[in-house]
Amino acid sequence: MGIQKDKLSEDQKKEIERLRSFVSRNRLNAQMNGTKWRAAIDAIQAISGYRASFRVKRLTEAGDPPANGWDENFPGNIPLYNAIEWLELKPWVETPSASGQKSRRINFAEQIKRELEALCIPLVESSSGIRILGYTRSEKK
Predict the structure, then answer these.
(1) What is the 3-state secondary structure (H, E, C) of 20-37?
(2) What does each C-alpha distance from 66 to 53, 55, 87, 99 come to in angstroms?
(3) pLDDT over 70 for what percent of the chain?
């Protein structure tokens, strides 16, 4: 899943250097690394019956992504790990009922938290999901 450093394009290498500079200038604290991101993604994919939808707040974006901007292509559309301020998982899945009537909502929040906390993945719950923290912001003095 991860990108090996020797396989990065020149543009990707420049982007990584630009992100490092941004992190330093803005006094951001890294909470995740490539190994932790891969472990988190593997754990999420291993949850039986859970189809992950996610939103990503990139480091360089001023605002949060749209509240309805859930991406169902997990993990395919996850950006470079070091560009992620947070990745939010929608904890529920809508499933059609057997009778063909109204869909059923299954909540995976507790299982997601349990799996990720077992890996010491930094999490916070938001009103819309469970966020994996890639970076935290330092308090300005």
Answers:
(1) HHHHHHCCEEECCCHHHH
(2) 14, 8, 13, 34
(3) 91
Distance CA 55, CA 60 (A): 15
Does residue 8 form part of some domain? no
Report the CATH number at residue 104.
Answer: 3.30.1240
Domain holding 96, by residue range, is 31-137
Those residues whose C-beta lies under 8 Å from the C-beta of residue 100, and which sit 6 or more positions away, are none
**What is the reported pTM?**
0.84
- Report how many domains make up the chain: 1
Q: Over the stretch 39-53, which tens digit does the pLDDT of each residue have?
A: 999 999 999 999 999
